[in-house]
Amino acid sequence: MSTQTTFEAEFAKACSNGVLPGVILAAANKSKTFTYSRSIGVSSSKDEHSDKPLRLDTVLGIASCTKLLTAIAALQLVEKQLLNLDEDVGKNIPELSEIKIITGMDVASGQPVLRSKTSPITLRQLLPHSSGLGLDAAHPLLAKWRESRGEAVNSGSTVEERCNGPLLFEPGTSWMYGVGTSWTGKLIERTTGQTLEMMADLSMTDPSGGDRAVPYQGYDLVDGCVDCMGGGGLFASAQDFLTILRAVLAEDKRLLSKQSYQELLMPQLSNASEEALNSLLTEDPQAHHYYGMNLPLLGRKSWSLSGTVSMDEQPERMGKNIGLWGGFQILYGLSTAKRTYVGWWRLRS
Predict the structure, then answer these.
(1) What is the CA angle 171-172-175, rounded to 5?
(2) Which residues of 45-84 are buried (b: 16+ CB within 10 A; e: fewer)?
(3) 302 vs 12, 128, 218, 267, 310, CA distance in Å?
(4) What does the pLDDT look like over 291-342, one tens digit per residue?
(5) Euclidean distance between the first and final Cα of the chain, in Å?
(6) Do 308 and 325 form a contact (C-beta atoms < 8 A)?
(7) What's the Cα-to-Cα distance from 301 to each of 62, 93, 262, 296, rounded to whole Å?
(8) Which of 79, 111, 136, 302 shows a CA-CA span of 20 to 30 A to 251?
(9) pLDDT band at residue 276 under the 50/70/90 scheme
(10) 8 Å CB contact between 348 and 82
């Protein structure tokens, strides 16, 4: 039995045993001489879909893999000189000019202790999570801040309401996964005067003529938010998302310039931010799983404008400078520094 057949057999076994409803596996190379795709199982474990086969063209929520598309859209505006990676985003997002840093909660009053930041927030910090913005649903201090306002975590119907928490640190000095990409989506909207949905429709069209990723009004990925969320919320089929990955791999000039592709995938963190990221991955098993992609801890990690970067060789796994990212529902993209192969795995829940 070949390695590929064994690989598929393990997933087929998991589906038949009820461990997974279904899985889609796909990979391709830059030269288009190799393409692999396989779908196994059914589209959902829910009764109404339990007998519906999962297919390569089944539209699925891509969750945080939306971030790749938001980063591409932002870099398109950088190329047009409408945005700058290193300028203060406060010109178009005054909320981020006025935002303060939380240092704790006052025990007596139950109110947050806040101080002013001394540095501006830039797009180069928003996308790789070094701006100081966090997730209130994932950080205890931000959850307490939200509670002090009489609000639930992850609440609010707009980006302005849902992503308005204080900073956790001075911009560019540490690392914490957060809502920077959702604010990037809002930055794109305010800069262009168009919705992020419209920008995705205009910018992410397959050069061959088809749609690559679309907003979808079925299953709610964003818990009732009415805004387009740059950090998550798009839906796409496996074959369409693989088309996007392959376009990045091949540096398709109809999306971005060669320089912009380099910016998209290269490590972007300061030494202090990179140190904070690696410390978090070592100390927090959940962070290691979701942000470190479950890679061995011995290898150094950084962050690009589009996801995790494994900077050191992982024996029997991958070489140096590999870019990876995923979504909450175990969805992964991969590209190599030599831009040779991409892969896409989707486990259907």
Answers:
(1) 95
(2) eeeebeeeebeeebbbbbbbbbbbbbbbbbbbbbeeeebe
(3) 34, 9, 35, 6, 7
(4) 988 888 888 999 999 999 999 988 877 788 888 888 765 566 555 555 556 6
(5) 29
(6) yes
(7) 23, 30, 17, 10
(8) 302
(9) very high
(10) no
Q: What is the Cα–Cα distance from 188 to 152, expressed in whole angstroms? A: 27
Tally Cβ neighbours within 10 Å of residue 262: 12
Among 129, 127, 126, 145, which residue's Cα sits nearest to residue 137?
145
Give the C-alpha separation, 149 to 206, whole Å.
44
CB neighbour list of residue 173: distance below 8 Å, 6 or more residues apart: 130, 132, 270, 272, 273
Q: What is the mean pLDDT of residues 270-275?
A: 97
Instruction: Read off the pLDDT of each residue in 30-50 and give the average, rounded to a whole number.
Output: 80
CA 138 to chain centre: 15
**Per-residue pLDDT, 346:** 60
The tokens describing 138, both together, are 């994932």
Model confidence at 8: pLDDT above 60: yes
Average pLDDT over residues 78-96: 97
How far apart are alpha carbons 73 and 179 in whole angstroms?
Answer: 17
CA nearest neighbour of 62 among 321, 280, 263, 348: 348
Which tokens in the block code for residue 147? 């509670």
- Which helix (H) or strand (E) segment is 35 a member of? strand 35-41
What would the mean pLDDT of 99-124 be, rounded to a whole number? 97
**Predicted local distance difference test score (pLDDT) of residue 337:** 52
User: What mean pLDDT is predicted for residues 203-218?
Assistant: 49
DSSP letter for each residue of 230-255: TTS-EEE-HHHHHHHHHHHHTT-TTT
Q: Percent of the chain beyond pLDDT 70?
A: 85
